[in-house]
Write a structure and sequence with these properties.
Elements: H1 8-17, E1 21-28, E2 36-44, E3 49-56, H2 69-80
Antiparallel strand pairs: 1-2, 2-3
Length: 88
């Protein structure tokens, strides 16, 4: 489940969010335990390549977990966005 190729709809979403780019390659990233992560290579109309990481939460949260892992991460990223120092 974590290493399976992303569905076409997910790759189409990546293309839409990156403007006039098309997906040219997808490689599963190892060691993810709670999310499927893939390195996605895109090429724009000018021929420039860009690599992004697609993270998909494909496992259902357990009953003892508080909320969605995606929502938890979105909240954390919004908190560090304004930090005056580099954050991952």
């Amino acid at each position: 489940m974590l290493r399976a190729d992303p569905p076409a709809a997910a790759l189409a979403w990546v293309e839409r969010t990156r403007g006039d780019s098309v997906v040219t390659g997808v490689v599963a990233m190892r060691r993810g335990t709670s999310a499927a992560m893939h390195r996605v290579t895109l090429r724009d109309r000018a021929g420039h390549e860009q690599t992004v990481v697609l993270r998909r939460y494909v496992r259902q949260p357990r009953e003892d977990e508080a909320g969605s892992p995606a929502q938890f991460e979105a909240n954390a990223l919004s908190h560090v966005a304004a930090a005056s120092f580099p954050t991952p």
